[in-house]
Amino acid sequence: MKSPIYLNALKAFEASARYQSFAAAADELNVTPAAVGQLVKTLEEWLETPLFHRVNSGKTRLVVTETAQTALPLIQNGFDKLAQGLDILKDNSINGALTVAVSPAFAAKWLLPRLHNFQDICAQTNVNLNTNLKPVEFSFHQIDVGIRFGVGNWKGLSSEKLMDEEVYPVCSPTFLANHTRLNEVDKLLNEVLIHDLSMDTQTAFPSWTSWLKKAGITSPLITKSIRINNSAAVLQSAIDGQGVALARSVMAKDDLAAGRLVRLFPNIHFESPLAYYVVYRPECAMLPRINAFRDWLFKEVEKA
Question: I need a labelling partner for 118 at 20 to 30 A (CA). Which of 2, 28, 86, 213 fits?
């Protein structure tokens, strides 16, 4: 079998196996169902073994044979590798689009206010932001580089620590002026405490309970509270005077500098065991656009 036919036949088989239908595979491949069926038949003849059982139950459905089912993940992985190789050949320049995956809160509070600096030095690179509350799969979503918060270990990705983080209480200047008793830590228990639930699945993520324990308060945390699963919204709630938030230093930096927030008890330091990491697929580590963006990120952190 000639290689173009071989590749086309494999694509036809893979799509048909996913959809269990020649018609659905044909829609994806932009050919006719008859063409897909013929390609699969050609592959079966070359292999001298069937790849599908045809099941008729009012509508023909394809059922992958046991042998074909075993081979299917390897073929799909092969197509993924081919796509990555083509991306590398296509993207071996600083020009074009760079897709960056970050959380919505990190984008709003840290990346977007600084992104114009990158665009000034790399005007020929168009940045596409993929903002998602949950980590995305880089290959499937065609992500070039990301910034993640955690312990630095994500399957299939290389990671480099970008910056550490501290947590501390913050409130608005107006809130502080109206609550002058906030000069002792235990007085926090009389206030509305704003909780950040954005990393609630991470057991190491600092909480109000752990911060208060660090500050010497071990009594049960019984107080009015607001609980939010977005770090940017946590800070906005504090800016609006809704209560006292346990802020993440990276997120709160610009709001503190602008006077929108005030840090309480600056003598108490609580370093988070989690940190920010630049992440990317190992095979894409040397792509110029990724290198340019990664280098720019570290220079922005050094400015602080």
Answer: 86
